[in-house]
């Protein structure tokens, strides 16, 4: 990439058939729908892609199918998170070889009792960086159980060649983003917001340059970022108010199931199946989700009809 990525870089859901098998044709339709939503890039195999229920073979298939199908129409970010540094290195090399524009990684973790110290976390990201020549986004999320203090993130940005993007999903994300940007300066190429953009306005106030949401309503969230960065803060605030009910319902009630359910209702995919031990959302939650999505006229709800 010549220019830094900004704007909205949503996570693609992984579609499954009703029997739980991966739906590769559905995956291509998801990607086409997201491109029609006007996204600036697409992230695959993230937590909202249910990466933790995929086999290594399935991951490899989805990586190849996604990168071949997108074929450079937008940049594709491939998530390569794993506890094993060698597995991360192998995944990183494969993703770059297939055409990934960026990698996203969480720190290594495997439960509360297996979170490495700061030195090992630094080495983990450094090994991935040494294996590729594309940017790496650090995903700083409570899910990992790993604490990533600002000084560590700044050191990583300054000393690890390809670490330059940061997705902040911790409590008080805006304060941490502001501190990271101030301390890291030019080394912080892409300070990003996450968590379905539930903290986006505060994170923009703090200096973030983009957001990584789900694929539920990126065409409606993107203008919040673009208007704000163009200096039209009132317009960004007005659009934030439009998006917030659906953002809140997704973030607090639906989680990763939301985009799949709306995409099924909109004919993008045939099933909104999630793999056990995840459970389908209740009829009550689904009804409210589809009502809010219809009121917002999201593209995913009409794309396949």
TrEMBL record:
<dbReference type="Pfam" id="PF00701">
    <property type="entry name" value="DHDPS"/>
</dbReference>
<dbReference type="InterPro" id="IPR013785">
    <property type="entry name" value="Aldolase_TIM"/>
</dbReference>
<dbReference type="GO" id="GO:0008840">
    <property type="term" value="F:4-hydroxy-tetrahydrodipicolinate synthase activity"/>
</dbReference>
<protein>
    <submittedName>
        <fullName>Dihydrodipicolinate synthetase family protein</fullName>
    </submittedName>
</protein>
<keyword id="KW-0456">Lyase</keyword>
<dbReference type="InterPro" id="IPR002220">
    <property type="entry name" value="DapA-like"/>
</dbReference>
<dbReference type="GO" id="GO:0005829">
    <property type="term" value="C:cytosol"/>
</dbReference>
<feature type="binding site">
    <location>
        <position position="212"/>
    </location>
    <ligand>
        <name>pyruvate</name>
    </ligand>
</feature>
<comment type="similarity">
    <text>Belongs to the DapA family.</text>
</comment>
């Amino acid at each position: 990439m010549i220019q830094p990525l900004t704007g909205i870089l949503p996570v693609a859901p992984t579609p499954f058939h009703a029997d739980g098998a991966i739906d590769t044709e559905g995956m291509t339709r998801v990607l086409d729908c997201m491109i029609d939503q006007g996204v600036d890039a697409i992230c695959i195999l993230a937590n909202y892609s249910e990466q933790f229920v995929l086999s290594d073979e399935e991951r490899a298939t989805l990586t190849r199918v996604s990168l071949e199908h997108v074929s450079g129409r937008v940049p594709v970010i491939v998530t390569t998170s794993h506890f094993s540094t060698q597995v991360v290195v192998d995944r990183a090399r494969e993703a770059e070889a297939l055409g990934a524009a960026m990698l996203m990684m969480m720190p290594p973790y495997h439960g509360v009792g297996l979170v490495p110290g700061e030195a090992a976390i630094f080495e983990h990201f450094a090994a991935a960086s040494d294996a590729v020549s594309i940017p790496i986004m650090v995903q700083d999320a409570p899910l990992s159980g790993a604490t990533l203090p600002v000084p560590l993130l700044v050191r990583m940005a300054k000393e690890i060649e390809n670490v330059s993007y940061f997705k902040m999903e911790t409590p008080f994300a805006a304060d941490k983003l502001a501190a990271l940007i101030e301390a890291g300066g030019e080394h912080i190429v892409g300070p990003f917001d996450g968590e379905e953009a539930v903290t986006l306005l505060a994170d923009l106030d703090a200096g973030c340059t983009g957001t990584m949401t789900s694929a539920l309503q990126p065409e409606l969230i993107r203008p919040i970022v673009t208007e704000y960065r163009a200096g039209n803060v009132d317009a960004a605030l007005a659009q934030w108010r439009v998006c917030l009910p659906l953002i809140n319902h997704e973030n607090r009630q639906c989680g990763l199931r939301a985009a799949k359910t709306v995409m099924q209702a909109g004919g993008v995919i045939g099933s909104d199946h999630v793999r056990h031990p995840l459970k389908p959302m209740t009829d009550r939650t689904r009804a409210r989700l589809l009502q809010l999505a219809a009121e917002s006229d999201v593209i995913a709800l009409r794309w396949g009809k």
